[in-house]
């Protein structure tokens, strides 16, 4: 399990969470408001690795970028719009070693 959080445009906050073998991206307007979560392991975002063990998030250029690290040391990435429209699949990144 893992979670990462960053500030977004305006007063918004974005988080990526990894739990029970699934990755989620979420947004909320203020630090105390409720999150809106999107499951990034569904059919609309194919290619999620089964052995993910770490997650990170960043915001830039109107998109929210989520990366996961696997137990084998592989890195995969995906992105959504800041409105959490997530229609891309996961892409493998060159290993960090």
Largest sheet: 4 strands, antiparallel
Structure classification = mainly beta
Order of helices and strands: EEEEEEEE
Biggest sheet, spatial arrangement of strands:
1-2-3-4
Give the rounded overall mean pLDDT: 94
Q: Report, as a whole number of angstroms, the end-to-end distance.
A: 23 Å
Q: Which regions have little confidence, pLDDT < 50, spanning 5+ residues?
A: none
Give the overall silhouette: globular
Q: Class, according to the CATH hierarchy?
A: Mainly Beta
Strand content: over 45%
Return the domain count. 1
Roughly what percent helix?
A: under 10%
Number of helices: 0
CATH architecture group name: Beta Barrel
Counted beta strands = 8
- Backbone CA Rg: 13 Å
CATH topology: Lipocalin
Characterise the protein shown here.
By secondary structure, the protein is mostly beta strands. The protein has one domain (2-93): Lipocalin (Beta Barrel), CATH 2.40.128. It has no helices and eight strands. The chain has strands at 2-7, 13-19, 22-28, 36-39, 52-60, 63-70, 75-81, 91-93. The strands form two sheets. A four-stranded antiparallel β-sheet has the order 1-2-3-4, with no helix packed on it. A four-stranded antiparallel β-sheet has the order 5-6-7-8, with no helix packed on it. A hairpin with a 4-residue loop joins strand 6 (63-70) and strand 7 (75-81). The protein is globular, with a radius of gyration of 13 Å. The model has no long low-confidence stretch (mean pLDDT 94).
């Amino acid at each position: 399990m893992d979670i990462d959080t960053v500030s977004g445009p305006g007063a918004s906050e974005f988080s990526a969470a990894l739990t029970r073998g699934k990755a989620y991206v979420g947004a909320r307007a203020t630090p105390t408001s409720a999150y809106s979560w999107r499951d990034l392991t569904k059919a609309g975002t194919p290619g999620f690795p089964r052995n993910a063990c770490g997650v990170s998030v960043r915001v830039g250029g109107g998109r929210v970028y989520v990366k996961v690290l696997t137990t084998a040391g592989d890195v995969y990435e995906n992105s959504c719009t800041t409105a959490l429209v997530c229609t891309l699949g996961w892409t493998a990144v060159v290993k960090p070693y």
